[in-house]
Design brief:
mainly alpha, 76% helix, 0% strand
Length: 92
Amino acid sequence: MNLNKFSKENIATAFYIIYILLSGLCYELFLGDAKTPNMGVLLLYVLIPVSLIYFMVHLVKQIYGNQSYVKCLLIHGVAWLSVAVILSTFAK
């Protein structure tokens, strides 16, 4: 699969959409309760370090590269905000 035909913004957006949809699917398919969260909630918590690494890669490319990654950095911020909202609903 040649990823050169997709823009970097589309790849970042698709990553977060697919990851959050996969987490939602796992949340619905696997059982869990308040004391033992299920696989979907666990995947959302794993998204935090994964997305931080992905953000750092884009930040380094923004600082030292010759292309602009500002839109990708904004996509990361919006995704983090949405994950924080989703996870805060599980805490209640």
